[in-house]
Amino acid sequence: MLRNTGSRGVPGHPALAGGLLAAALLTWPLLAQASLSSWAKEVLHLGIYRERVATLQATLSEDHSTWGLAFSPHGRYLAASSPQTAFVQLWDWRRGRVVRRFRRSGSDIESTTPLAYSPHGRLLASCQSDADTIIQVWSTRTGAVVGNIPNSGGGCAAIAFSPQGHSLIWIRELTYVASPKVRQIFVTSTRTWTIRWALATGLFQSNALTVSAHGHWAALWGGQFGWSKPRGSVKKVYSVIPQIVLVNLTTHRIERTVSMPQGTNMPGAVAWNPRARVVAVGVQGALHVGLDNVIRLYNAHTGALVGGESGPTKTWVTALRYTPHGRYLIEAGIHHEVEIWDGNHHRLLQKIPHQAWSLAVSPHGHYLALGEGGQIQVWRFR
After folding, report:
1. Res 177: pLDDT
2. Measured between alpha carbons, how far is residue 198 from residues 116, 193, 249, 253 in Å?
3. Sign of the alpha-carbon torsion through 64, 364, 162, 333
4. d(Cα 59, Cα 74) in Å, to the nearest integer?
């Protein structure tokens, strides 16, 4: 004979009532999802809010595509540049308004325009290619130009301030096979705007740069150009071998060169993990679908491959960024989306369905900016 437990309408053992309640609670999300619109289902499928690593805070409208983004030290302001306009705009993004415009000079503004904010926030630098003035530096307080670096044979491909703000580190963009003696990486004083030192990298040409958290190292991502004779061939062929070149900024020497495997395409982006001696690189136009062919992570000390990610053919990784404490790695370009991974690249945490051409992370790690088409989005990390 069954004994009533006191739970109305549920005779029998208390565990049965609890089981039915648990089953109802587990079933409810599925029933609720079944009633959602197709748009909402697609959002859930994309995983935009799967773990709520980041939430959208603001959307800013731009007239042109944004190829350069940089946050001020405290994240209040966001600088944005486009290859289609002569101005760099400084946004008070929370209020959705432009508070200052910096005019770029030069005969050709149709060029990539990486940006860099100085650590103390008083300087903003713009890096240009194929222009009379390849680097311009403004005072963020007055808007006046405080530094100019003229073109001396090749534009500027990438730029970064040293962590203390005493130096501006940049790499020369070369559009031809230069002499091995041509200097490519430069370190310029931010007080006098004169060159502290420069280094030739041989036939290696780079278009991406990242600096370690303490400013002791720089990683250049590019290719080694030259003639080689393939095994079994009697003729030499012109080839490009993608490489990472690690430069010791203290000794002014190249300490290590890491060559990519055959089939790796040209570089697209590079980032240094501030919590570990790991360099992440992304390629432009992956040649095949396979393990580690789109994103590669290397131990900067040993050169060993320690992780990676595959992707579809013709993938273009447009940008990579670590958050300041190495908690997240943000990737743009795979499947025309932005992916947020944990800092060790073990787990994909969130996807944002936007093709971002530029990324910026605020120095304290709270905010993420995405530049896409005529729109800039600002997200907040939890």
Report:
1. 56
2. 20, 13, 10, 10
3. negative
4. 19
- What pLDDT, on a 0 to 100 scale, did the predictor assign at position 377? 95
CB 156 within 8 A of CB 147: no
In this structure, what are the phi and psi dihedrals at residue 15, rounded to the nearest 5 degrees? -65, -30
Compute the radius of gyration of the chain from its Cα atoms: 25
pLDDT under 70: residue ranges of the chain: 1-51, 106-112, 130-131, 174-179, 227-234, 238, 262-266, 285-292
Residues 225, 181: contact at Cβ < 8 Å? no
pLDDT score at 246: 95
